[in-house]
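cron nightly-structures :: item 1 of 1
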Amino acid sequence: MTQTKANIALLLGDPAGIGPELISKLLKEEVTNKANIVVIGEKQILESGNNVTGNSHQLEIVEDFDQIDFNKSNRFLLDISKGKNHNYKIAEPSKESGKSVLEALNLANFSAPSFGSPILSNTSKNFSKFSRLSFALFSATGRLSFS
């Protein structure tokens, strides 16, 4: 019996925080091979996380949900940078890093429904699920949970 893979969206989080390196570590975990993965964030931010961890990943880079085709690949980076190249400083929150986080959340929340994504609920811990895409939460403790 063929089992279809779950479609999982991962947000990089605050460019000035530890989210990018946690996502870089998570992408090396065997469990992620059992899912179709869409990382949402700025390409350079994931690369900075990779620089911290020493990891590299084979992700197809796209700029729009419509470019994602899980028949061609099972790992994508939805690059939201749109040509901007901010120099975020680790552990220094800024207006630009906040805008990056909000842009990724808005994209996941409002642009993705045609892709089948979840809609964020009023509380930060609860997500409504649609059939095709779920969010994975990776905590600082290294525990992976799917919602």
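cron nightly-structures :: done
The chain has three helices and eight strands.
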